[in-house]
Amino acid sequence: MIKSKKLILKLGIGGKVEWSNIVTRKILKYRMANAFAVIDQLKIPAFGAISTDAIGIGVPLLTSSNKSINENFFGKDAPIFATNNTVDIHLNLNTILNKNFNHIEYMSNSNIWYDHYLSSEVAFQKRLQTYEALLSK
Q1: Residue 21 and residue 60: Cα distance in Å, rounded?
Q2: 31-70, pLDDT tens digit by residue?
Q3: pTM exceeds 0.70 for this model
Q4: In the sheet that 81-82 helps form, which strands lie side by side, from edge to edge?
Protein backbone atom coordinates (compact mmCIF):
# COMPACT_ATOMS: atom_id res chain seq x y z
CA MET A 1 0.00 0.00 0.00
CA ILE A 2 2.93 2.34 0.65
CA LYS A 3 4.07 2.00 -2.99
CA SER A 4 0.54 2.71 -4.19
CA LYS A 5 0.29 5.84 -2.05
CA LYS A 6 3.66 7.09 -3.31
CA LEU A 7 2.58 6.51 -6.91
CA ILE A 8 -0.70 8.37 -6.38
CA LEU A 9 1.22 11.34 -4.98
CA LYS A 10 3.76 11.20 -7.84
CA LEU A 11 0.90 11.31 -10.35
CA GLY A 12 -0.48 14.41 -8.63
CA ILE A 13 -3.89 12.94 -7.87
CA GLY A 14 -3.60 12.51 -4.10
CA GLY A 15 -6.62 14.75 -3.48
CA LYS A 16 -8.79 12.62 -5.75
CA VAL A 17 -8.05 9.24 -4.14
CA GLU A 18 -9.98 7.85 -1.20
CA TRP A 19 -8.27 5.30 1.03
CA SER A 20 -10.54 3.34 3.32
CA ASN A 21 -10.59 0.45 5.72
CA ILE A 22 -12.22 -2.85 4.77
CA VAL A 23 -15.90 -2.40 3.90
CA THR A 24 -18.73 -4.69 2.87
CA ARG A 25 -19.22 -5.42 -0.82
CA LYS A 26 -22.47 -3.43 -0.78
CA ILE A 27 -20.70 -0.33 0.56
CA LEU A 28 -17.81 -0.86 -1.86
CA LYS A 29 -20.21 -0.99 -4.83
CA TYR A 30 -21.85 2.23 -3.64
CA ARG A 31 -18.46 3.93 -3.38
CA MET A 32 -17.42 2.65 -6.81
CA ALA A 33 -20.64 3.96 -8.35
CA ASN A 34 -19.78 7.41 -6.99
CA ALA A 35 -16.11 7.32 -8.02
CA PHE A 36 -14.57 8.81 -11.15
CA ALA A 37 -12.60 5.57 -11.65
CA VAL A 38 -11.66 2.27 -10.02
CA ILE A 39 -8.10 0.97 -10.02
CA ASP A 40 -7.78 -2.77 -9.46
CA GLN A 41 -5.11 -5.47 -9.84
CA LEU A 42 -2.17 -3.78 -11.48
CA LYS A 43 0.04 -6.88 -11.53
CA ILE A 44 -2.20 -9.78 -12.55
CA PRO A 45 -4.12 -9.50 -15.85
CA ALA A 46 -7.34 -11.05 -14.59
CA PHE A 47 -10.76 -9.82 -13.52
CA GLY A 48 -11.65 -10.35 -9.89
CA ALA A 49 -14.85 -9.36 -8.11
CA ILE A 50 -13.90 -5.68 -7.91
CA SER A 51 -13.15 -5.48 -11.64
CA THR A 52 -16.35 -7.25 -12.65
CA ASP A 53 -18.40 -5.08 -10.28
CA ALA A 54 -16.81 -1.93 -11.73
CA ILE A 55 -17.61 -3.07 -15.28
CA GLY A 56 -21.18 -3.87 -14.27
CA ILE A 57 -21.62 -0.50 -12.56
CA GLY A 58 -20.06 1.27 -15.53
CA VAL A 59 -17.36 3.18 -13.68
CA PRO A 60 -14.10 3.51 -15.63
CA LEU A 61 -11.81 0.64 -14.66
CA LEU A 62 -8.02 0.72 -14.73
CA THR A 63 -6.59 -2.76 -14.39
CA SER A 64 -3.83 -4.95 -15.72
CA SER A 65 -5.05 -6.61 -18.87
CA ASN A 66 -4.08 -9.03 -21.59
CA LYS A 67 -6.25 -8.27 -24.62
CA SER A 68 -5.66 -11.61 -26.36
CA ILE A 69 -6.58 -13.59 -23.22
CA ASN A 70 -9.74 -11.50 -22.75
CA GLU A 71 -10.75 -11.90 -26.39
CA ASN A 72 -10.07 -15.63 -26.27
CA PHE A 73 -12.01 -16.17 -23.03
CA PHE A 74 -14.90 -13.74 -23.51
CA GLY A 75 -14.99 -13.36 -27.30
CA LYS A 76 -14.42 -9.60 -27.03
CA ASP A 77 -12.11 -7.46 -24.92
CA ALA A 78 -13.74 -5.64 -22.02
CA PRO A 79 -14.29 -1.87 -22.09
CA ILE A 80 -11.53 -1.13 -19.60
CA PHE A 81 -8.44 1.01 -19.45
CA ALA A 82 -5.61 -1.50 -19.78
CA THR A 83 -3.03 -0.42 -17.25
CA ASN A 84 0.16 -2.42 -17.24
CA ASN A 85 2.65 0.19 -16.01
CA THR A 86 2.88 3.63 -14.40
CA VAL A 87 2.81 5.41 -17.76
CA ASP A 88 -0.51 3.69 -18.57
CA ILE A 89 -1.92 4.77 -15.20
CA HIS A 90 -1.01 8.38 -15.88
CA LEU A 91 -2.32 8.41 -19.46
CA ASN A 92 -5.54 6.60 -18.58
CA LEU A 93 -6.32 8.85 -15.62
CA ASN A 94 -5.71 11.91 -17.81
CA THR A 95 -8.15 10.49 -20.38
CA ILE A 96 -10.84 9.84 -17.76
CA LEU A 97 -10.38 13.26 -16.16
CA ASN A 98 -10.48 15.06 -19.52
CA LYS A 99 -13.61 17.17 -19.90
CA ASN A 100 -14.27 15.53 -23.28
CA PHE A 101 -14.42 12.01 -21.84
CA ASN A 102 -17.96 10.71 -22.35
CA HIS A 103 -18.86 9.01 -19.08
CA ILE A 104 -22.39 8.18 -20.24
CA GLU A 105 -21.12 6.37 -23.35
CA TYR A 106 -18.48 4.53 -21.31
CA MET A 107 -21.10 3.45 -18.77
CA SER A 108 -23.44 2.26 -21.50
CA ASN A 109 -20.73 0.24 -23.29
CA SER A 110 -19.57 -1.20 -19.98
CA ASN A 111 -23.11 -2.24 -18.97
CA ILE A 112 -23.78 -3.84 -22.37
CA TRP A 113 -20.49 -5.77 -22.27
CA TYR A 114 -21.18 -6.92 -18.71
CA ASP A 115 -24.68 -8.14 -19.58
CA HIS A 116 -23.47 -9.97 -22.68
CA TYR A 117 -20.25 -11.53 -21.38
CA LEU A 118 -20.59 -11.79 -17.59
CA SER A 119 -24.16 -12.88 -16.99
CA SER A 120 -24.36 -15.83 -14.64
CA GLU A 121 -25.27 -18.22 -17.48
CA VAL A 122 -22.45 -17.03 -19.74
CA ALA A 123 -19.95 -17.18 -16.87
CA PHE A 124 -21.05 -20.70 -15.97
CA GLN A 125 -20.73 -21.96 -19.57
CA LYS A 126 -17.28 -20.38 -20.02
CA ARG A 127 -16.00 -21.89 -16.81
CA LEU A 128 -17.43 -25.27 -17.75
CA GLN A 129 -15.70 -25.11 -21.17
CA THR A 130 -12.42 -24.10 -19.53
CA TYR A 131 -12.54 -26.96 -17.00
CA GLU A 132 -13.48 -29.47 -19.72
CA ALA A 133 -10.53 -28.29 -21.82
CA LEU A 134 -8.15 -28.57 -18.87
CA LEU A 135 -9.40 -32.04 -17.96
CA SER A 136 -9.03 -33.30 -21.54
CA LYS A 137 -5.31 -32.50 -21.63
Answers
A1: 22
A2: 999 999 999 988 888 888 999 999 999 999 999 999 998 8
A3: yes
A4: 38-40, 61-63, 81-82
